[in-house]
Amino acid sequence: MSWRPEPNDRFYRFTLRTGLVLRWLFRIRILVTGQEHLPQPEPLGAATCGPASEGASRRGTARGPFRPVMPGQGAVVAITHFGYLDFAFAEMLLWWHNRAQVRFLVTQGAADHWLAGPAVSAAGHVVVGYGSGAHAYDAAVARLKEGEYIAVLPEAGVSRSFTVRECKTGAVRMAAEAGVPIIPVSIWGAHRVMTRHHAFSPRRAWRAPVRIHVGAPILPGSLRVPARDARQATARLAKTLQDGIDTGIEDFPLQPAPGAWWMPAGLGGGAPTEEERRRLDEADGPRRAGTRRR
User: Which fold would CATH assign to domain 9-293?
Assistant: First the structure.
């Protein structure tokens, strides 16, 4: 059993600062729309920074007090998952908006890693075990009721077609049980920097644009449905996330070359089609199961 430190605000701030410094070094442009759909910031004085309007891009810092956590002020943050850095850009957005600390649902595999494990523990994330994940679900609901932001990647894996794939119902069920809204966050362009089968490239990262679109929140009143209806609400969430991706693609400030690997097949890109993506995902299933058994 490796070392597992207690959650630490200083460590969270350190990781956030690291991300902000890397973003500044590579001059990554973060362009945000739909920010009016984010929860109104709690009073924290005058300290706010970061992308504050459509097309804005500011440097930002990791200074200032954290957002106060109060019962009734929590939210599920549902993030698209096309690349390995999507979570970081969503985290920056919420920090800029109201100094929020975001807790992610993290796989047991990441928590068991010799290097990532201590970081997951110190950042206070919620670990989803290899079994049913019931304990993690209950812990996430409890934190939501306390007023925390819990971030989920409802596609449960990178979508290599670069379109929103089938989403799991966990985000909807957690929000309904905790009585909090779902904030849909669609991120386009971060996958160009680093994603499956495309390692981090300083050349692609230099001045790379990243588009973030925040969809209208899905309110808890519309989610108080029996478990059998959770799929319908989840389909609504998936459509909202895809609409946000379409918005990001429409005004993305980078013209793709014909057949560009980072564009969906339906738009003339070189990414797998949905049929190919499903076949590749199914082929991965047994391999992942074997890894978990080991």
Answer: Glycerol-3-phosphate (1)-acyltransferase (3.40.1130)
